[in-house]
Inverse folding.
């Protein structure tokens, strides 16, 4: 197993199994390659939108390939100042973005993942970024996104922490032998380094869990707000129909008691 294979398996696994899969892969590598095990352990959990796009890259890669082909055409037309070609691409642009959103929705349905408006907006924003920026298109096609992408309308898309990459948790030892401690010191230093690595890994996992909980909280608040708005509208509708029933009932009563001609 190498890092590429581990990344491919990890970011293709069910989102709820991410931590367990990462632990399994890291443990499997630890005996033969401790450095690889540390790199795997440092890989971060993706957001829901990023995970769905990673599934699209595996399950429906054509949706991403079509998006990237159109992006290349539009960027070429823009660099050449070909406004006619850009205008002709606009309807196709919307259709291609909608196709990616739909593909992510199918992946969500296949894996029992909630696909709310906020997540759809993240997929939309990532598609726009991939159309505008070649590196973003490659990041999307990698199948190892950590977060959705966003394009501000100029320059390159910010890709820091957007794609899974290994983290160097422990700095290399100095090359100068004179700077190396004695054997006993080495043992103590190694134990301390391993303990610090474990602590940093646990800290990063806790921070990632916090970020995920905060995202889920925001989604829940949006859903609550929508539900409250729907409840208000439903109550208004009930009041309207109750008033109508009251009016018609009164009319019937008056008609029944009206003297006959």
């Amino acid at each position: 197993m190498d890092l590429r294979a581990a990344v491919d398996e990890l970011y293709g696994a069910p989102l709820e199994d991410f931590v367990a899969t990462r632990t399994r892969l890291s443990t499997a590598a630890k005996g033969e390659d401790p450095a690889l095990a540390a790199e795997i352990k440092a890989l971060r959990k993706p957001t829901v939108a990023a995970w769905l796009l990673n599934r699209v890259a595996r399950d429906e890669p054509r949706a991403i390939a079509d998006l990237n082909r159109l992006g290349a055409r539009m960027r070429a037309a823009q660099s050449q100042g070909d406004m006619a070609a850009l205008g002709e691409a606009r309807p196709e642009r919307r259709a291609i973005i909608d196709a990616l959103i739909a593909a992510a929705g199918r992946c969500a349905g296949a894996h029992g993942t909630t696909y709310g408006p906020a997540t759809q907006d993240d997929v939309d924003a990532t598609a726009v970024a991939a159309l505008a920026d070649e590196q973003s298109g490659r990041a999307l096609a990698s199948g190892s996104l950590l977060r959705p992408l966003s394009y501000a309308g100029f320059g390159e898309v910010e890709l820091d922490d957007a794609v899974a990459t290994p983290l160097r948790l422990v700095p290399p030892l100095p090359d100068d032998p004179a700077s190396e401690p004695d054997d006993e010191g080495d043992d103590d230093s190694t134990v301390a380094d391993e303990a610090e690595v474990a602590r940093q890994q646990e800290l990063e996992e806790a921070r990632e869990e916090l970020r995920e909980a905060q995202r889920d909280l925001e989604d829940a608040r949006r859903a609550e707000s929508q539900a409250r708005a729907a409840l208000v509208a439903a109550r208004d509708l009930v009041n309207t129909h109750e008033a109508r029933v009251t009016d018609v009932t009164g009319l019937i009563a008056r008609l029944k008691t009206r003297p006959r001609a």
